């Protein structure tokens, strides 16, 4: 129930609606609005954190950021039985987009224990207190900085690029990497850190609001 209320409040905040603990008439009207000229389903990109979500701020407060202002980070993709073959090149590209506007560099490692970023696929309850909900709804979740975990829902319909009723993993990856580097959700619809994405669309290019948020933490590249 707490997760549902939090999700509703985040949605209302993002769309400049009155913040409620339940679905009111105005929120339902917003949910039902067609986007990009036709009906589209929206799915939620979750930041797993102990702090309450705030879509009015582009970043998590700087006092909570444990990462150095620059550095070399190792990443590892686990779960050999999952769609990892497509995730390796995608994550390399999306990490590069954040590297281009910060002083971070990234390298792949096969050693999960030494990795700063650990990307995995799971379904349902996977022993972290945030079970996945199957097809639709929550696509993935990332943990706050210094944890390094990103979990994708194995039961989603993942496909590279734009395809009706499927999810583009690159769009989700660039969003989740933003969380790992310390960014929270923001209320700019075109930003990669906006907490919702329409099914069958792609959003992989950093918005000026995304760049402003990350550089406010780590400085200009």
Automatic annotation (TrEMBL):
Zn(2+) 2 binds at residues 175, 179, 185, 193. It comes from the Eukaryota. One of its GO terms (biological process) is proteolysis. It holds the Pfam family Peptidase_M10. Ca(2+) 3 binds at residues 133-134, 153, 156. Ca(2+) 1 binds at residue 156. CDD domains: ZnMc_MMP. SMART domains: ZnMc (SM00235). Its cofactor is Zn(2+); Ca(2+). Ca(2+) 2 binds at residue 116. GO terms for molecular function: metalloendopeptidase activity; zinc ion binding. Binds 2 Zn(2+) ions per subunit. Zn(2+) 1 binds at residues 126, 141, 151. InterPro entries: M10A_MMP, MetalloPept_cat_dom_sf, Pept_M10_metallopeptidase, Pept_M10A, Peptidase_Metallo. Keywords: Calcium, Hydrolase, Metal-binding, Protease, Zinc. Residues 61-220 form the Peptidase metallopeptidase domain. One of its GO terms (cellular component) is extracellular matrix. The keyword Protease applies. Coiled coil: none annotated. This is Peptidase metallopeptidase domain-containing protein. It comes from Nelumbo nucifera (Sacred lotus).
């Amino acid at each position: 129930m707490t997760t549902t209320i939090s999700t509703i409040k985040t949605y209302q905040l993002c769309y400049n609606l009155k913040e409620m603990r339940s679905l009111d008439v105005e929120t339902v009207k917003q949910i039902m609005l067609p986007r990009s000229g036709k009906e589209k389903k929206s799915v939620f990109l979750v930041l797993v954190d102990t702090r309450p979500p705030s879509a009015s701020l582009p970043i998590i407060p700087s006092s909570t950021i444990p990462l150095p202002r620059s550095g070399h980070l190792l990443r590892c993709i686990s779960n050999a039985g999952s769609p990892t073959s497509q995730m390796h090149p995608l994550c390399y590209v999306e990490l590069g987009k954040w590297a281009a506007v910060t002083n971070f560099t990234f390298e792949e490692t096969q050693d999960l224990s030494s990795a700063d970023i650990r990307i995995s696929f799971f379904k349902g309850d996977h022993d972290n207190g945030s079970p996945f909900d199957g097809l639709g709804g929550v696509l993935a979740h990332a943990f706050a900085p210094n944890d390094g975990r990103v979990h994708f829902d194995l039961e989603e319909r993942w496909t590279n690029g734009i395809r009706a009723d499927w999810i583009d993993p690159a769009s989700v990856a660039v969003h989740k990497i933003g969380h790992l580097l310390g960014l929270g959700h923001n209320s700019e619809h075109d930003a990669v850190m906006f907490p919702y994405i329409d099914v069958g669309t792609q959003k992989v290019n950093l918005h000026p609001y995304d760049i402003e948020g990350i550089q406010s933490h780590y400085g200009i590249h």
